[in-house]
TrEMBL record:
Coiled coil (residue ranges): none
HAMAP family given in the database record: Porphobil_deam
Organism placement in taxonomy: Bacteria, Pseudomonadati, Pseudomonadota, Alphaproteobacteria, Hyphomicrobiales
Gene: hemC
Name of the protein: Porphobilinogen deaminase
SUPFAM superfamilies recorded: Periplasmic binding protein-like II, Porphobilinogen deaminase (hydroxymethylbilane synthase), C-terminal domain
Its biological purpose: Tetrapolymerization of the monopyrrole PBG into the hydroxymethylbilane pre-uroporphyrinogen in several discrete steps.
One Gene Ontology cellular component annotation held by this UniProt entry: cytoplasm
Pfam families for the chain: Porphobil_deam, Porphobil_deamC
Pathway annotation: Porphyrin-containing compound metabolism; protoporphyrin-IX biosynthesis; coproporphyrinogen-III from 5-aminolevulinate: step 2/4
EC number: 2.5.1.61
Xref: PROSITE patterns: PORPHOBILINOGEN_DEAM
Length: 307
C-alpha cells in the first residue's frame, strides 16, 4: 500500500511535531514507520525571517503551500501548530484532529533577572509576537521590546550574545525541542495569557476524505479539541483586525469549558478581558460570543486607534 503522505514545514519544531504525529498514528494502528512518508515543504513564513509576521501580513503564512498540496491530493494530511492556523481555511479543508495539548504557557528566558518583573529599568526584551509585546508593555511600560524573529535556536543565540536582556517563547515548543532547561520562569496564564491555540498540534485534511478521518479519529484528544474550538471561536469573532494583540486560553474540566480571553492595544495601556464558562459541546459558540462581547465593549475606536 502507498504510504500516507504527511506534510510539514521544515523547521526543527515543525519536524518534531510531524514525527510526534507519525508516532501516535503508528501506535494507534500498529503500523510500521514505512506506512508514512513525511514531506517537508517551505512556506512564505519560513522564507521571510527579517520582518515581523504582522508586517508581512496575509493569512496562512505558514500554511499556504501545505494546503495547496492537500487540496490537490499530493498530501493526505498536514501537521501544524494550531497557533499558526488562520481561522478561515481553504474550501474543502479543515482541522480534523488535535493532539493532546502541551503546556500552553509562555516561557521567560533570561540570565539578567529571574522574572520579567525583576528586569532592570529600560531593559530590552526580544519578541516579535504582537501579543507578547503588548503583554510585556502592560506589565512593564519602561521595557523596550524589539522585533526578534527566526528559529528558536537563532533567538537563543541572540540572547546569549547579549542583544537583549530576555526573550519569551512558547514553553511547548521548547519542550518539543528538548530545550526546556533554558527556561528561567513560566508566565502565569492569567496575567500573561497565551495565544489561542498555543501548545496544541493540529492536523488538517480534506473534509471529504473518510479514509483519513478514520485514520485520525483515534489520536484526536477530545478536551483539547473542545478547548481549541472555543479559542478559535474567540479569534474568529475578532478577525479582520489581525494587527490586534489577542490572547485566549480555554481549559476543560468535567465536560465544562472555562475560557479567559483578552484583547490589548499594542502599547499595552488599554485592554479588555472576559471570562466565560459553559458545556464543552457549545465551546465554539461560547468563544465566538466572548469575542463578540469584547469587540463590542472595546468599541470601534479601540481597533482604529492604531494600524
Ligand atoms: N510561529 C511561531 C510558533 N508557532 C508555534 C510555536 C510554539 C509551539 C506551540 O505553540 O505549539 C511557535 C514558536 C513560539 O511561539 O515560541
Amino acid at each position: 500500500m502507498k504510504p500516507y503522505r504527511i506534510g510539514t514545514r521544515g523547521s526543527p519544531l515543525a519536524l518534531a511535531q510531524a514525527h510526534e504525529t507519525r508516532e501516535r498514528l503508528m501506535a494507534a494502528h500498529d503500523l510500521p514507520e514505512s506506512a508514512f512518508e513525511i514531506v517537508v515543504l517551505s512556506t512564505k513564513g519560513d522564507r521571510i525571517t527579517d520582518r515581523p509576521l504582522a508586517e508581512i501580513g496575509g493569512k496562512g503564512l505558514f500554511t499556504e503551500e501545505l494546503e495547496e498540496q492537500l487540496s490537490d491530493g499530493r498530501l493526505d494530511l498536514a501537521v501544524h501548530s494550531s497557533k499558526d492556523m488562520p481561522t478561515a481555511l481553504p474550501e474543502g479543508l479543515g482541522i480534523v484532529t488535535y493532539l493532546e495539548r502541551e503546556d500552553p504557557r509562555d516561557a521567560y528566558i533570561s540570565s539578567a533577572a529571574p522574572r520579567l518583573e525583576d528586569l532592570p529599568q529600560k531593559a530590552v526584551v526580544g519578541s516579535s509576537s504582537l501579543r507578547r509585546q503588548a503583554l510585556i508593555r502592560r506589565l512593564r511600560p519602561d521595557i523596550s521590546v524589539i522585533t526578534f524573529r527566526g528559529l528558536v535556536d537563532t533567538r537563543l543565540r541572540k540572547l546569549a550574545d547579549g542583544e537583549v536582556h530576555a526573550t519569551m517563547l512558547a514553553f511547548a515548543g521548547l519542550k518539543r525541542l528538548g530545550k526546556s532547561e533554558v527556561v528561567t520562569n513560566l508566565m502565569d496564564p492569567e496575567s500573561f495569557p497565551p495565544a489561542p491555540g498555543q501548545g496544541a498540534i493540529c492536523i488538517e485534511a480534506r473534509l471529504d476524505d473518510e479514509r483519513i478521518a478514520e485514520l485520525l479519529a483515534p489520536i484526536d484528544h477530545a478536551d483539547t479539541h473542545a478547548a481549541l474550538n472555543c479559542e478559535r471561536g474567540f479569534l474568529g469573532a475578532l478577525d479582520g483586525s489581525c494587527r490586534t494583540p489577542i490572547a485566549g486560553h480555554a481549559t476543560l474540566e468535567n465536560g465544562q469549558v472555562s475560557f479567559y480571553g483578552m484583547i490589548l492595544t499594542p502599547d499595552g495601556t488599554t485592554f479588555h478581558d472576559i471570562r466565560v464558562q459553559g458545556p464543552a459541546a457549545d465551546a465554539a459558540q461560547l468563544g465566538a460570543d466572548a469575542g463578540a462581547e469584547v469587540r463590542a465593549r472595546a468599541g470601534s475606536k479601540f481597533f482604529e486607534s492604531w494600524s
